[in-house]
Specification:
Elements lengths: L1 H21 L5 E4 L6 H11 L5 E4 L7 H19 L6 H24 L2 H12 L3 E10 L2 E9 L9 E9 L4 E4 L2
Parallel strand pairs: 1-2
Antiparallel strand pairs: 3-4, 4-5, 5-6
Helix pairs in contact: 1-3, 2-4
């Protein structure tokens, strides 16, 4: 069992190192994310637009120590490069920006979940035994637009269907159904 674990760690390390070598001409910050984390994934997409790099999630729900070390080594190279090219304290600034975005998105989700009409629309999807998929768009620092689609898990080949759209306003702490 120990041998199998060591072989697996070696293979993952080699794959990670190959990715580092392969993509040294593009700036990518790697994140270890939990699959299905709506808030973090959307915060990363939004924040990525403000930085000269792409954010790439490279793992799922569990991490081995060597993978975490590889991510840190890779990202430290990116932070050092940015610091020396006009982005002082890049890591700290990025983490601060990301945390602020996460907090805003969580608040927008909380506001929308407290809205009776939105809750009823999601309940109707569950009643019809449909899975929802939500896209998030940031309009500004106080307003987010949610577009909800549905699809049937039993008939996955079928296209997703638009269900409804709403906005959450952090300043007014209100949700408005658009469509």
């Amino acid at each position: 069992m120990k041998i199998l674990t060591n072989i697996l760690i070696l293979l993952i390390s080699n794959l990670t190192l190959a990715q580092i070598e392969k993509k040294n001409d593009t700036l990518e910050v790697w994140t270890l994310f939990s699959i299905g984390n709506f808030v973090n994934q959307n915060a990363e997409k939004i924040i990525e637009k403000e930085w000269p790099f792409k954010i790439k999630g490279i793992a799922g729900d569990s991490f081995i120590e060597s993978l975490i070390d590889s991510v840190e080594i890779h990202n430290n190279k990116i932070w050092n490069y940015l610091d020396s090219n006009g982005y002082p304290n890049s890591k700290k600034k990025f983490e601060s920006d990301l945390l602020a975005e996460i907090i805003r998105i969580k608040k927008a989700v909380e506001i929308s979940q407290s809205n009776k009409k939105v809750s009823e629309l999601y309940a109707k999807l569950r009643k019809r035994k449909l899975q929802d998929y939500t896209e998030l768009k940031k309009e500004n620092n106080t307003k987010y637009e949610f577009t909800v689609f549905s699809f049937d898990l039993k008939n996955i080949e079928k296209e997703q269907n638009f269900e409804f759209k709403f906005t959450s306003d952090l300043k007014k702490e209100k949700t408005k159904i658009i469509e």
